[in-house]
Structures are given as C-alpha cells and as structure tokens.
C-alpha cells in the first residue's frame, strides 16, 4: 500500500474506471479526473490541469484525441512534481502513417518520451469490449455488424487485461521505466469470426457483412458523426486491412506474468450479462 496519490485521467471511460477500481483495491490513493468528475479535466481546457496534478506522484494518461495538448500537460506534470507517467496509446502508433489516429497517438508518445519523468507506454490492440460497450454494440443488438474489414484478423484484447497491466505499471516504480508494451489478446480473429462467437454465446442469429470504407463512412454520418470523424474511423480500418497489426505479442505476460484472457472468455461473460439481448428477445 502506498500513500502516494495517482491521477487517473478519463476516469469514467472504458479503461479509466477499471484502473481506478484496481488501484483502490490495492490501497493506492486515487484522484479521478474527467469532464464529469469532481476533479474536472478536459484536454481542451488547460485551466483545470494544475489542480488535477497538484500533489500527484503518478498519472495514468489516455492519449488526447488531437495532436498537441499532451506536450503542455507533460510540462505541467513535471513542474508539479509528478514522477511517473503511464500513457495509454494504441497498437502500431508508429505504423499508421499520417492518419489522424496515428498523429494523435504519436504526438502524445513523443511528449511522454521526451520528458524527464519515468514513463511507460501501453499500446493495446482493438478492445474486445468495443463489441458490447462501444461502436459495435448497437449494430449487433440490431442483428448485423457491417465493417470495412475482411480476412485480416485482429488480436482483440480484453479491457480487463489492459486495466490489470496499467495498475501493475502504476504501482511498480522502476520496473517498467522506459518501456513500450504492445498488448494483444492470445490469438487473432477476423471480425466475422468474432461475430460468430458472439452469436453462439448469445443464442441470437447475428451476422457480419463486409462493406466498403466509403459505405461505412456514410453510415457513420447517418448516425450523427461528422464527415471528418467518419472518414478518420474508416481510414483506420483501411490501415488495419494491411495486416500490420495482426500478430500477437507476449508483452502482457511480461507485465503480469500470465497469459491474456481469450476472446471467448470475454464473450461468455458479456453474453451472460445480456450484452446482446436474449434468444427470446428479452
């Protein structure tokens, strides 16, 4: 147990809220910060950053959605006496070319790596929980997921594993300094195979259909995304289809000393919780 306070940004998000729960279980004092937390944090409003950083020893940072602000944040963290930063980036941050997604992550990584602080970068692959907590959920509940992805597999990682890794790095000073961990699940699956597993576990006749990037972008605009944001998301799938990120790594085992959870483990848990509805429509 430590008396040092750890700041968790994005504390209500998929990874953040899980990291908070683990740190509290370990007895680590936590300061939660987000746009809706008591300690307010917004990447577009630097006015609240100093209050969030005051008295903090370590910080869990989710890369901001635009390039740039991480540099100012890291400078303020150094000035505030923060000693360790753990950055949640994304797998293949240095292979996404000049995509907006890649620029965001690389900018944040450059800021952290260029600091005088002890830093660690976590680069997870696509989250399994995207199928029940994020963009893939509503289409699956409706019965069909349509994406611009075909035969190239993805080593989906369970967010529970990402949170376990983040908590370990945050509470083990020195052991992970200067490391970049590429976190993946134990095997890669195509999106079609993933939907088939979800269909079996949920008992619902769910289907997967491949569409073109242009069709997918148009569907996102219909759902309310701006045209720019829709193009950026579709662009990510185009890059994924090159197969550069289809391989698995042993980095999670390096951090935690155990194998990552399987996609099947995740599907069974989520289906039992009714994530995609019941076979009888309930």
From TrEMBL:
Domain of life: Bacteria
UniProt-listed InterPro entries: Ergot_Alk_Oxidoreductase, NAD(P)-bd_dom, NAD(P)-bd_dom_sf
Domain NAD(P)-binding span(s) in chain numbering: 10-173
Record's signal peptide: none
PANTHER family xref list: PRESTALK A DIFFERENTIATION PROTEIN A, PTHR43162
Name assigned to this protein: NmrA family protein
């Amino acid at each position: 147990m430590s008396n040092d306070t750890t700041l968790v940004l994005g504390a209500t998000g998929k990874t953040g809220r899980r990291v908070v729960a683990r740190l509290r279980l370990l007895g680590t004092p936590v300061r939660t910060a987000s746009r809706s937390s008591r300690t307010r944090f917004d990447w577009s409003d630097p006015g609240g950053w100093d209050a969030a950083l005051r008295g903090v020893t370590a910080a869990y940072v989710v890369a901001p959605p635009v390039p740039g602000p991480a540099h100012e944040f890291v400078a303020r963290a150094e000035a505030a006496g923060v000693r360790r930063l753990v950055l949640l980036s994304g797998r293949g941050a240095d292979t996404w070319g000049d995509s907006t997604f890649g620029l965001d992550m690389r900018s944040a990584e450059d800021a952290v790596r260029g600091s005088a602080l002890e830093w660690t970068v976590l680069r997870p692959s696509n989250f399994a929980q995207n199928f029940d907590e994020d963009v893939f959920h509503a289409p699956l509940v409706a019965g069909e997921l349509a994406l611009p992805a075909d035969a190239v597999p993805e080593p989906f990682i369970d967010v529970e594993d990402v949170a376990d890794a983040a908590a370990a790095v945050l509470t083990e000073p020195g052991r992970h300094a200067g490391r970049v961990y590429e976190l993946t699940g134990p095997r890669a699956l195509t999106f079609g195979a993933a939907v088939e597993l979800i269909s079996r576990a949920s008992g619902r006749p769910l289907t997967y259909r491949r569409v073109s990037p242009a069709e997918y972008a148009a569907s996102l605009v219909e759902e309310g995304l701006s045209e720019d944001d829709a193009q950026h998301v579709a662009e990510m799938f185009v890059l994924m289809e090159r197969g550069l990120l289809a391989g698995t790594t042993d980095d999670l085992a390096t951090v935690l000393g155990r194998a990552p959870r399987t996609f099947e483990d995740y599907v069974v848990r989520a289906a039992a919780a009714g994530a995609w509805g019941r076979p009888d429509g309930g």
